[in-house]
């Protein structure tokens, strides 16, 4: 169901007010939204027609079960965005709150869902804060890259440029989304150990964590590795 910005804000306001109040009135909603009673009543009429609220003219306001479900999702979305701006990007709380309100209404649905999935992944991943996020916080604080980033970058090279006697760890994948997904399905996952076995025509034969895989040369240019074999320094 497509709702206007005002409708979403009103549902979320009712949801939050109902947590602290036994009954929610129009004037409470208007105060929460920094609006006026007439505007709130107009919005409530529309929401009532959609089956999202129960409301008598200037009387108590209550969310229907359908309205509660939507309001709960809106609140969760807002909280995730706030946490992203506050904790991941390190913005002051008032700016994080303001930007969370703005972005949830003006981003495309696809863009917003992508950001929300990223935030949820960061929050729920059992490995805790990923290394790249820790490095990013360092970059935000000091406006320079951590030494470990520069050291890895110096060692990083395209898989195709590795010698047969060398092995390395996959650091990152490049290319379009389709190319990266293809490489992941083949087993080229960041953190895996890879070693070149042979090169036949346009096919690169490699070991990825001891599993032999045939890879088109064209795709090998999208795999970046950090060489770990000591022969590199001889």
Could you explain how this protein is built, in words?
With 234 residues, this protein is of the alpha+beta class. It folds into two domains: 1-119, Arc Repressor Mutant, subunit A, CATH 1.10.10; 151-233, Roll (SH3 type barrels). Helices cover 54% and strands 19% of the residues. It contains ten helices and nine strands. The chain has helices at residues 5-20, 26-33, 37-49, 65-88, 93-106, 109-124, 131-142, 147-155, 177-186, 217-220; strands spanning 24-25, 53-55, 60-63, 156-158, 167-173, 193-200, 203-208, 211-216, 223-227. The strands form two sheets. It has a six-stranded antiparallel β-sheet with strand order 4-9-5-6-7-8. Strands 1-3-2 form a three-stranded antiparallel β-sheet. β7 and β8 form a beta hairpin. α2 crosses α3 (37-49). The longest helix is centred in the N-terminal third of the chain and has 24 residues, at 65-88. It is elongated.
